[in-house]
Please model this.
Amino acid sequence: MGKTWMAAKRRDYYYRKAKQMDYRSRAAFKLIQIDDRFEIMKPGMVVVDLGAAPGGWLQVAAERVGDRGLVVGVDLQSIEPVHGMVETFKGDIRKQETVDKLLAMTDGRVDVVLSDMSPNISGAYATDQARSVELCEHALSFARKTLANHGTLIMKIFEGDMLRQFLWSMRYDFEEIKLHSPKASRSTSSEIYIVARGFIPQEREAPVAKPAAKKKAPAPVIDDESGQ
Model:
């Protein structure tokens, strides 16, 4: 089984292209395709990459923000140095000490939060999706603390029963939420990417002037571009 898997991997178009272009993983092309589609990262921006190892997304982000920008990556595993304005460290985004360190490294202001985090696969899909959602909740929590006004959050999530409920939980935070499946995602994968743009810092929202009848929560602006 191992030999078959390796043979299929070597035949994979994006795996071979990543090797040719010196990207650390085929996943780099997922971010390239997402950013080409939505035009998110620009020169001078501050980007944080959660679950950044081995560094493919860091490489792409560094190319897009240039020498005037900053890219910070964190992962449970050590990350080899990446060329450009990139800083990395080993940490767990689920722990407050990691969040505090990221806040210090970015001065608490980030233009784009990226998360390609994936749970350890158990084989029980309901469990794996729940763990994927949990990781996204941590990414969203970090984004709420750090994103600049109109900032962007891009994160991977597994499709399933919990997806729509999670998207609904973001309805006050972003002006636009899209589901997108880049071509570089494998056809057999259940992953999909949330692209949330137009961050609305909650402390900047106008307070209610006086008590009034309860209003229904606004429907989130959610578009499905997954093609599924």
Remarks:
- Helices lie at 2-11, 13-21, 28-38, 56-65, 96-106, 125-146, 163-169.
- The chain has one domain: 28-201+217-223.
- Residues 204-220 have pLDDT under 50 and may be disordered.
- The domain at 28-201+217-223 is CATH 3.40.50.150 (Rossmann fold).
